[in-house]
Amino acid sequence: GAVVSQHPSWVICKSGTSVKIECRSLDFQATTMFWYRQFPKQSLMLMATSNEGSKATYEQGVEKDKFLINHASLTLSTLTVTSAHPEDSSFYICSARPIRGTDTQYFGPGTRLTVL
Amino acid sequence: GDSVTQMEGPVTLSEEAFLTINCTYTATGYPSLFWYVQYPGEGLQLLLKATKADDKGSNKGFEATYRKETTSFHLEKGSVQVSDSAVYFCALSDRGSRLTFGEGTQLTVNP
Asked: Long-range contacts made by residues B49-55, C-beta under 8 angstroms, separation at least 24?
């Protein structure tokens, strides 16, 4: 149980294009999902917290107009990187916290984004 | 604010050696503590957790005990395997909010 999927697992795009990454909780409902960014050999940096049906809360220094987050249902959150540039290349990981009874976050497998 | 400090890596061990990865934390409340493992090219997997003082989390031969007096949650395994090679992250969650991660410790186990 507690499986989180991400799609796509990797994507290569041209500079200036937008990329959408999906995060799904497959066997549980999640009121809260989190988006992280991870640089090589570094820890995870929280980008934003998204709650179903409301606007995401972005961490300081994260551009909300560049990283659009939509949490349309209790099992799906999307991150759209708009007008991507090479410096946006990174490993993006989502996590989801079940509705009831736990503060444990379950992580997706990550999405490797490369912007040319 | 909350913070997590892990022992610096990388750590290299021979198969069947004893493993300890130190983790200490700073938190204003009574956090839950976690160890996550990340295999190359993958996301994080929950390895074990403890939600209150003196709790011991265990999974796959790994153990960690929540020590409030020393604000520590050290990860141990009695006999590591090559398949344990990964990056290990210590983390805390205070009042069910965001996770705060340590820097991660790279473990390599040689046959």
From this structure: B49/A104, B51/A103
Query: Is residue A100 helix, strand or coil?
Result: coil
Query: What is the rounded average pLDDT for all residues in chain B?
Result: 93
Cα A66 to its chain centre, rounded Å, is 13
Q: pLDDT, tens digit, for every residue of B25-69?
A: 999 888 999 999 999 888 889 999 999 999 999 999 999 999 999
Per residue in A62-115, pLDDT (tens digit) is 999 999 999 888 999 999 999 999 999 999 999 998 887 677 889 999 999 999
Q: What are phi and psi of A45, to 5 degrees?
A: -110, 120
Question: What pLDDT is recorded for position A39?
Answer: 86
Angle, vertex CA B106, rays to CA B105 and CA B109, nearest 5: 130
Q: DSSP for B43-80?
A: -EEEEEEE-STT-EEEETTEEEE-BTTTTB--EEESS-
Interface test with A, best of B4, B23, B33, B44 (most A CBs within 10 A): B44
DSSP code for A86? G
Contact call for B104 and A106, based on CB within 8 A: no
With CB atoms and an 8 Å threshold, state whether A110 touches B102.
no
What kind and span of H or E run contains B2? none
Cα A45 to Cα A5, A6, A39, A59: the distances in Å are 19, 18, 9, 9
